[in-house]
Design a protein that fits this description.
By secondary structure, this protein is α+β, with helices and mostly antiparallel strands. The protein contains 14 helices and 33 strands. Strands 24, 25, 28, 29, 31, 32 and 33 form a seven-stranded mixed beta sheet that branches. A four-stranded antiparallel beta sheet has the order 11-8-15-14.
Length: 644
């Protein structure tokens, strides 16, 4: 299917389904047509493809295109470096460059609006009160500050509440330190735009700092900071307080869930039955249409039943907006054959469900103005419901937690820990080895989402108590598996290197089963927890099929598994476990995984690309979390009422 998937099976996956994957529907802001740039962008990002070769067109209209996703903030795409054809209405694409503004359409990257207020600020004016303004910075990994924005200046106030909001993009997979500087602006500069103010000409009132995750995970999403002197110097007390309140910049959360089926479809294949799928497009103002999603393919069936689709308000715009529903016979070549189409609004689909009636497909006439042939095949709506889609932050701010777990590879292929070439070598200078880097980079992100910060930590493939163990407590305790904080994991790991012998083989099954047991117990207790297991390994799996079986069983549980490959081994097996190419894992009994719960990254490639391990590993985690939560219709206000 258009090169996005490595096989035909992957090409038959549904696309743009709110409950099972990332929605990828382009909405043009001017004239409308299918935008091949959309397809190019998502392939580059590793997302599922929207358009098959049949669906792609060489021509796109002039104008700016917007890609909404499950959340209403937008990807904005500007098309440049194009050849303009003789047609007045279209651009013919030769070379595309995409200029992207990422918003909350990606569940990992959401825009938040920060509202600021302060109390008991220092009074630096003699005849009046201070005229305060706040400058907000993000602190980069190298320690430099990047300005995000400035509030307006409020006259004569030691307890100001600023009107202007500061927008910041929230990235789940990285730690985002924020720095707030409060200034008193002299009266003679009040006529200048705040962006033009030279901060050296203003008097410094105080500094506050926090991590963005601290704000958005608070119930109510408000955090009050004590102001102090620059660089954390608290020599002067009572500099006042700064309160930061965050709000996700969202529009409508409304969505519909609809389940389609058909009867008596026309057969388009010679030696078998058709392999039908539906494509749904929205009609726009100029009469053109924009594809918003498609179902999976049902093989060899003229009476197919598809999995439910979830369409957001951003996709269908209004219940009265007309939609085109096309039924195709899938061909692996990409030349899908149209079986028939029909036009219905969301309101019409709701009526079909209520009345339990079908709508006949029409085969368009080859004549330009023909009305088409009414077919025997009909479309039915098996299920229709209206719902709200909640974001990742909606859940964590209402009390849902991420429980972090770690498993470390103690197989002999790592090399003796005292050998400087060993992957387990502890450098006396304090320089982290690969295992320490992975623990720190991932742990320092996830720790903010776990209230007690007590983390289960295991080792595998090592010799303890005279025998090889494929899942032992990293802290050496016979009963307690938890350590306190990320530093507790680091200390337990360093200590284990002194008394655990390196052995083998490399088995993941026992560790995954232990993590799944914890997730299952939590689920049975109606706990508001989602579990994240980090496995760090240097070797090739010995129990590949057993690992697949464990992962398929775990795919029904509130669990995600992050795997980091360290060293120079061939990690092709690990890529099989990470179902990013559209083909879900299958167990030895033929059961297919409910969802993809694995993310694998080889550390050497991640660092070569200038990315942190945490960014590469955690980018899929919010989406995996939401897939699990939404499949069980768990709402933030009732997270404790988990359904198994």
């Amino acid at each position: 299917m258009g090169g996005c998937f490595s096989d035909v099976r992957g090409g038959k996956q549904s696309v743009g389904v709110g409950l099972t994957g990332t929605t990828m529907s382009p909405i043009p802001t001017s004239n409308a047509a299918v935008n091949d740039a959309v397809d190019h962008f998502y392939r580059a990002q590793g997302f599922r493809q929207l358009f098959t070769p049949l669906e792609c067109r060489n021509m796109i209209p002039k104008g700016r295109y917007i890609l909404p996703n499950l959340d209403p903030a937008l990807h904005k795409i500007k098309v440049t470096n194009v050849h303009i054809s003789k047609s007045e209405d279209y651009l013919e694409m030769e070379d595309l460059r995409l200029n992207l503004t990422t918003g909350s359409c990606d569940p990992r990257k959401m825009e938040w609006s920060l509202s600021l207020s302060a109390s008991r600020l220092r009074d630096r004016d003699i005849l009046s009160k201070s005229d305060p303004m706040v400058v907000v910075y993000s602190k980069k990994r190298d320690g430099t500050l990047e300005e995000l924005g400035r509030t307006e200046v409020i006259m004569n106030s030691l307890d100001p509440a600023w009107i202007k909001k500061i927008t910041v993009a929230y990235h789940f997979e990285i730690v985002q330190p924020l720095i707030f500087h409060v200034y008193d602006v002299d009266t003679k500069y009040h006529n200048l735009p705040v962006e033009m103010l030279k901060l050296n000409d203003a008097e410094f009132l105080g500094e506050g700092s926090c991590v963005l995750s601290e704000i958005v995970t608070k119930q109510g999403q408000s955090l009050t900071l004590d102001l102090h002197n620059r660089n954390g110097n608290r020599g002067l007390k009572n500099l006042g307080k700064l309160t930061v309140h965050a709000e996700e910049t969202v529009a409508s959360r409304n969505a519909i869930e609809v389940k389609f089926c058909c009867s008596h479809l026309e057969n388009k294949d010679l030696f078998s039955k058709s392999d039908p799928f539906l494509r749904i497009s929205r009609i726009v103002e100029n009469g053109g249409s924009v594809p918003i999603c498609k179902t999976e393919v049902v093989d060899n069936n003229l009476n197919p039943i598809w999995r439910p689709l979830c369409l957001t308000m951003q996709q269908f715009v209004s219940k009265d907006n007309p939609l085109i529903i096309e039924c195709f016979d899938f061909n692996s070549s990409g030349n899908h054959v149209l079986i028939g189409n029909l036009q219905k609004s969301v309101a019409d689909l709701e009526k079909l469900h209520e009345q339990k009636t079908g709508a006949n497909f029409i085969l368009p006439s080859s004549a330009h103005h023909g009305h088409g042939k009414v077919l025997k095949g009909q479309l039915f709506v098996d299920h229709f419901s209206e719902k709200q889609l909640y974001s990742f932050i909606d859940y964590v701010s209402s009390g849902f937690e991420l429980n972090f777990m770690v498993a470390v590879d103690f197989t002999a292929s790592n090399g003796h820990p005292r050998d400087p070439d060993s992957l387990h070598y502890i450098d006396p200078s304090g320089r982290f080895n690969a295992y320490q880097q992975a623990i720190m980079e991932v742990g320092e992100v996830i720790q903010f989402y776990d209230s007690d910060r007590h983390f289960p930590a295991w080792g595998f493939g090592g010799v303890t108590n005279g025998a090889v163990s494929h899942c032992f407590n990293l802290n050496g305790s016979a009963s307690g598996i938890e350590v306190e904080g990320v530093q507790g994991i680091m200390a337990a790991y360093a200590s284990a290197l002194n008394h655990v012998g390196l052995a083998g083989p490399t088995l993941f099954g026992p560790v995954i089963n232990n993590a799944a047991e914890s997730a299952g117990q939590s689920l049975s207790c109606n706990s508001r927890k989602y579990f994240v297991l980090l496995i760090i390994t240097d070797g090739v799996l010995t129990d590949l099929q057993e690992t697949k079986d464990a992962l398929v069983r775990a795919s029904d549980l509130p669990l995600s598994i992050l795997i980091v490959g360290v060293g120079g081994a061939d990690f092709k097996q690990m890529e099989i476990l990470d179902a990013d190419k559209g083909c879900r894992l299958e167990s030895s009994t033929g059961r297919v995984a409910t969802r993809d719960i694995v993310q694998f990254v080889p550390m050497r490639e991640v660092h070569a690309g200038g990315q942190s391990v945490a960014q590469a590993l955690l980018e899929e985690l919010p989406g995996q979390f939401l897939t699990y939560i939404r499949s069980r219709d768990i709402k933030p206000s009732a997270c404790s009422q988990l359904s198994t």
